[in-house]
Amino acid sequence: MQTIQANNYPIYFNEKGYEALNLHLKETKYSNLFIIVDSNTNELCLPNFLPYLETDLTIEIIEFEAGEQNKNIETCVQIWNVLTELGADRKSLVINLGGGVVTDLGGFVASTFKRGVDFIHIPTTLLSMVDASVGGKNGVDLGSLKNQIGVINVPKMVLIDTQYLDTLPQNEMRSGLAEMLKHGLIYDKSYWEKFLDLKAIDFADFDELIYRSVEIKNEIVSQDPTEKNIRKSLNFGHTLGHAIESYFLENDNKTTLLHGEAIAVGMILESYISMHKKLINQEEYIQIKSAIKSIYDDILFDENDIKPILELLIHDKKNEYGNIQFALIEGIGKIKINQSVENELILDAFQDYKS
C-alpha cells in the first residue's frame, strides 16, 4: 500500500513502515529511545515489534496499566518522572506502541516533556489505526470527561502494521469499526455501503478498508488541522457518544463502554436528529439504524440516565459561546457542522433508540 502523506508526517503501512523507521533512527541522532506501552501491548505486541528495530540506542520500556480509566494526568506525571529518572532529554525519541489510550497519552507526554520531544505512533488496535493515531490530536481525560486536556502536535511518522490486529478480541475490533462506519457516513457513501452486509466482506481485503478509512480522515484533517471548520465533521456521533461514554465510565453500576460502542449509539441518535432536521430521509435513517444495530449490542438506558448524560454535553470541546454544537449528516456521505439541537429532540432520539 502506498504511503499516505499527512500534514508534515508520513503514514506507512506494514513492512514499509519498519524500513522507514530504521532509516529514520539511522539518520537522526537521538540520545536514547523510550517505548511507551500499556500492560496489554507490553505482553502481546512488544515481542513482535522489538525484532524489527535496528539501532544501537539504549531502549527503555515504560509501561502503564491498560484502560481508559488510566488516561489521565496522574499517569502522565508518573511517566514524566520515569523519563526524568532514566535520563531522557530533548534529543530522546518516544515510540507509542498501543491503542488509542497509548497514542493519545503518549503523544501528549512527548509533546510536553521538556517542551516537546520527537515521537512516533505505532497503533495496535483498529480504533487507533483508523482514528486515534492520525491527525495530531494528543491528550488525556479530566476525570470522566473525554480528552479535555491536550495539544495538537504531529508525530514524526505513523506506522500501521495490521498484524497487530491478530491480538485483538472481537469487541475491540467492533469498537474500531465504528469509526470506519462514521467515515463512510460523513464522507463516502460507497464506502459506507461496503459495510451494509458484513458477511459479504472479504476480510482478506480488510487492509484496503483500513487504508481507505485512514485516507478519509487524513483528507479531512489536512484541510483543517486545528478544527476550525471541516475537521468538526469527524465529531459526528461523538457529541452524544462521548457524553454516554463518560457517563458509563463514572458510574460504578454501569458497565464501562468501549469508545466505539458509545459512538455507535451516538451515530444512531445523531442520525435520528439529522432526519428530524430534514437533512436525511426516513429510509436513510432506517438503513443507518439497522446496519449499526446489526453489529452492536443495544445499550440499556433507564429514565434516570438521560438527564445526567445531557448535563455532560455542556463540557463537550466543540461547544462555542455556551452553545452545544453538533455535526449532523446531510445525506449519507455529506456533513453539516455547527448545528444547534434542542433538548426535546435529543430526548426523542433516545426514545427512538430504545424502540
UniProtKB/TrEMBL annotation:
First-tier enzyme category under EC: lyase
Record-annotated 3-dehydroquinate synthase C-terminal domain positions: 176-319
Enzyme Commission number, as recorded: 4.2.3.4
Domain 3-dehydroquinate synthase N-terminal: 62-174
Cofactor field: NAD(+); Co(2+)
InterPro entries for this protein: Dehydroquinate_synthase, DHQ_synth_AroB, DHQ_synth_fam, DHQS/DOIS_N, DHQS_C
Keyword Lyase: yes
Keywords for the protein's UniProt record, in alphabetical order: Cobalt, Lyase, Metal-binding, NAD, Nucleotide-binding, Zinc
Annotated SUPFAM superfamilies: Dehydroquinate synthase-like
Keyword Lyase: yes
Gene Ontology molecular function, alphabetical: 3-dehydroquinate synthase activity
One Pfam short name: DHQ_synthase
Superkingdom of the source species: Bacteria
Function (record text): Catalyzes the conversion of 3-deoxy-D-arabino-heptulosonate 7-phosphate (DAHP) to dehydroquinate (DHQ).
Xref: NCBIfam families: aroB (TIGR01357)
Protein name per Swiss-Prot or TrEMBL: 3-dehydroquinate synthase
Protein's organism: Flavobacterium fructosi
